[in-house]
Amino acid sequence: MTTTTPPKKRAIRRIIEGAGNGIIFGIRLGRILRRSRRRRALFRIIRKQIHRKLRPVLEPLAPYWRVFRKVILRPIEVRLRMLWRRIVRFHKHTPVPRLRRLYLGGFATFFLLAFILIWIGNSRNRLVPDPQTALAMLMQDTANLIGQKRLGKAEKNLAELKKLAPQHPTVLIFSGAIKSLRKDYAGARVDYTLALRASPNSFNAAFNLAEVDFVTGNYPVAAAQLENMLKSRPDDEILLFRLFVCELLQNRDDLASYYLGRLPQSGETPAWYYANAVRLFRINKKSEARALLNTAKSLYPDKTAFFDASNELLGYR
């Protein structure tokens, strides 16, 4: 059987419980406030004690501190505030079109200037050089093309060179070299002769003129011209090698041995090895000759082109 509490009693009970809870909350809140007041008071006491102890030390430094704050800290603070206003507050209160005009316009100007500077730097390489530089560059290119036996492009360069300097000794030598490679030895002889007249001390013109006689089988004339050149260059290995071959092909073994003896084994060119290889080819010792050629190519990998062409001309492989 259940009993029900009358409404008046329930209301009185709730009022009493609420009053008790309020009293308990007030007591706890008072304790917390008293503790916080005590803490604040304790901190004040500790701070006063610290000030009292540090005052004798800090008072002499007070003028220096004021100067330091005025001269150094204050300008830094002012600059930081200005920077803060420029960066943060400026962005907060500046409309978007102005930001776009200031920032995007600046970026566009920067990239435009960078592009112009890069274009100017690259265009310097495309500037037309002065005539002397252009002539030197064209001569170097033509010499490389002749060395690679790319005669079509070499002839185009030669046509340009003849417009710039038709009587230049080097241009005439290039013309003779191309004609010689085309087996037009008569035309090559004319060009080399003109080059030698324009520059009597030109070694290349004189040597190429002798080479025309050597290629055409006129060994006595070629040897005479080479001997004349040897007077000014007594230790030139290429001249000694070519004289050795000329005398050997004329069966003048004594003079051939003389020029062979003047060639150094450890010279600046592989002339000694190729000269001995030619001698061995002449007496049909091909294996020994090829061994010497292989040694020369291993010792002088970048200096055998002239000697290889000579052997190819003679049929010694």
Structural class, judged by helices and strands? mainly alpha
| Euclidean distance between termini CA atoms | 135 Å
How many DSSP E strands?
0
- Quickly name the level 1 CATH class of one domain: Mainly Alpha
The general outline is: rod-shaped
pLDDT averaged residue by residue:
81
The low-confidence parts are none
Radius of gyration: 51 Å
SSE string, helix = H, strand = E?
Answer: HHHHHHHHHHHHHH
**Secondary structure: helix percent:** over 70%
- By CATH, the architecture of one domain is named Alpha Horseshoe
User: What is the helix tally?
Assistant: 14
What proportion of the residues form beta strands (DSSP E)?
under 5%
User: How would a crystallographer describe the biggest sheet?
Assistant: none
Which fold name fills CATH's third level, the topology of one domain?
Answer: Serine Threonine Protein Phosphatase 5, Tetratricopeptide repeat
Would you write up a description of this structure?
With 317 residues, this protein is mainly α. Among the domains are: 130-201, Serine Threonine Protein Phosphatase 5, Tetratricopeptide repeat (Alpha Horseshoe); 217-317, Alpha Horseshoe (Serine Threonine Protein Phosphatase 5, Tetratricopeptide repeat). Helices cover 80% and strands 0% of the residues. It has 14 helices and no strands. The chain has helices spanning 7-58, 62-93, 96-123, 131-147, 151-164, 169-181, 185-198, 203-215, 219-230, 237-249, 253-262, 271-282, 286-299, 305-314. Helix 4 (131-147) packs antiparallel against helix 5 (151-164) and helix 10 packs parallel to helix 12 (271-282). It starts with 6 loop residues before the first helix and ends with a helix.
